[in-house]
């Protein structure tokens, strides 16, 4: 058997390493299209596996400037009316600052509701990222439709008139595949802005040598402003790229805007390099990385109470 020259051996090792890397990359399923927002795009068609099954849609939409009391009342009535017309179930919060819903029903009914919102207020709901999951067993569906009138979409304890505006916030969204890469950055920190019991069930676990995971251990969202104001928290975040995540993205919106506003108003005492949210939250990340990616555990999605 002929022996390889040192140059040939080195080339062979290089080729093997390259092949191994390609195999590893191939082994992790990545679906980049699943990471893309549905905002300003047609809703996905009903797949064959959705027949005789239940579909789920998660979505939120902030409204700036917020609805007036009269507009808020009219919006609540219109949304409930549309939900009943489409015969869907679920729950939602309707506030002057917008709408947040988790709904279930037949696949075509879910799409009819989403398109109905777009037709009703196109300047608002064309921007909405409707996150639809088809093919669920019927026992996962809600039993009734409950859309409640609320003061806010996420209870951060910040009145609408003083809550940080999203329009001027420099916090940015990235797609799930890019967020995945950012988690390998040792100069980043990851904040789970969900409640502690959700984090205990499942959370992102960055790779060794990657970003540092920070769990605020919140019982509810109203504790976040106090936590972010804590000098110990700001010391951990100072000078870092801050990655935030939550189930569907809504809790990150105000949280990231609050962090951005605080950093910009601190006169240089507290700075972050960048504030980033994963577009569509954990829900979209899991669709992009069906084998889990850097996610460990389960995603607490919803209960049917």
Automatic annotation (TrEMBL):
Ranges in a coiled coil: none
Pfam families assigned to the protein according to its UniProt record, in alphabetical order: Rhodanese, UPF0176_N
Rhodanese domain span: 184-294
Composition bias, Low complexity: 1-25
UniProt-annotated stretches for the region Disordered: 1-46
InterPro entries recorded: Rhodanese-like_dom, Rhodanese-like_dom_sf, TrhO, TRHO_N
UniProt cross-references to Gene3D superfamilies, sorted A to Z: 3.30.70.100, Rhodanese-like domain
Taxonomic superkingdom: Eukaryota
Protein name stated in the entry: Rhodanese domain-containing protein
